[in-house]
Design brief:
With 145 residues, this protein is mostly helical. It has one domain: Winged helix-like DNA-binding domain superfamily/Winged helix DNA-binding domain (Arc Repressor Mutant, subunit A, Orthogonal Bundle), CATH 1.10.10.10. It is 50% helix and 6% strand. It has a two-stranded antiparallel sheet with strand order 1-2. α1 crosses α4 and α1 packs across α6. The model has no long low-confidence stretch (mean pLDDT 91).
Length: 145
């Protein structure tokens, strides 16, 4: 499984919104400048996130985007599933009903199921708030001597 640029940028966009939340809507122009991601690319991502209900949006001069809930209430899994779809490591596990004719005899399916469960557990255990906290700790400069 490989997370696409869209998935990685979606996480950066959501972290940016969470870090700069102040009750007001944030423009894509501001996010684009801070994250160094083109507005056109952000528009594609933000459309998906908005349709999924992860963001609120307002048009017009005072418009922009903001999180629809607190950062602690989003998991990385919530965000990645919007942009990446199913996070299955193999195609045969993408759907609830396995349609593979070799499923019953497959010698590796249990391994793939275990890997998939580990992926799900991990991405659902990390919140947007966790990512924001890590980011802040990385960019905070300690001036003590």
């Amino acid at each position: 499984m490989k997370i696409s640029t869209k998935g990685r940028y979606a996480l950066r966009l959501m972290i940016d919104l969470a870090e700069h939340t102040n009750g007001k809507y944030i423009t894509l122009k501001d996010i684009s400048a801070r994250q160094k991601i083109s507005i056109k690319y952000l528009e594609q991502i933000i459309t998906q996130l908005s349709k999924a209900g992860l963001l609120k949006s307002v048009r017009g001069p005072q418009g922009g985007y903001k999180l629809s809930k607190d950062s602690k209430d989003y998991t990385v899994g919530d965000i990645l599933r919007v942009t990446e779809g199913n996070l299955s490591p193999v195609a045969c596990l993408e759907y609830d009903t396995n349609k593979c004719s070799n499923y019953e005899k497959c010698s590796t399916v249990d391994f793939w199921i275990g890997l998939y469960q580990s992926i799900q557990k991990y991405v659902d255990s990390v919140t947007l708030e966790d990512l924001v906290s890590k980011h802040i700790s990385k960019v905070t400069v300690d001036f003590s001597i």
